[in-house]
Specification:
It is a single chain. By secondary structure, the protein is an alpha+beta fold. It folds into 2 domains: 73 residues, no CATH class; 58 residues, OB fold (Dihydrolipoamide Acetyltransferase, E2P). It contains 4 helices and 5 strands, in the order ααααβββββ. The relative contact order is 0.09. Keywords: Membrane, Transmembrane, Transmembrane helix.
């Protein structure tokens, strides 16, 4: 093995390149900040060859914290305003929709037709064929109330 491959600074730079490569292969916008910290530590180790393992690890820890903090500030918390805030919440989009009871509701449970599918539902006693409105979602169960209880 060449002598330059045993240099700690070079090993840190190789680690940085590997982390950056992994980030490119499996994007997650996280390893890039750790790669930056490893690269800075590698540069410091090359500039200051007497820096021991403890100093290298301390440098890496500090630069990793700084890089992650900058990354969080840069990428985090800036939610994009949407014209349709329920776009990716399919369950919440069903609240307020009209459904039809497919079965009689016994003990507060039954099935309703929503669109082209049947869903388990909870609600007051009602006969099959009764129109109802979805008022909440509990997991995959629709919570419904008869349509007549809503003012039109």
């Amino acid at each position: 093995m060449p002598g330059w491959l045993t240099e700690p600074g070079i090993l840190w730079l190789i680690a940085a390149a590997l982390l950056a490569g992994i980030e490119l292969a499996v994007p997650g916008v996280f390893l890039v900040f750790i790669a930056v910290a490893a690269a800075i530590t590698g540069a410091f180790t090359l500039l200051f060859p007497d820096l021991g393992l403890g100093g290298q690890l301390a440098s890496f820890a500090v630069w990793a914290a700084v890089a992650v903090a900058i990354g969080r500030r840069w990428y985090g918390g800036d939610a994009v305003a949407s014209a349709d805030p329920l776009l990716n919440d399919r369950a919440a989009r069903n609240i307020g929709r009209t459904v039809v009871a497919v079965t009689d509701f016994a003990h507060g449970e039954g099935r309703v037709r929503l669109g082209d599918g049947e869903w388990p539902a909870r609600g007051p006693a009602m006969a099959a064929g009764t129109a109802a409105r979805v008022v909440a979602i509990d997991g995959v169960t629709l919570v419904v109330e008869p349509q007549s209880s809503f003012p039109e």
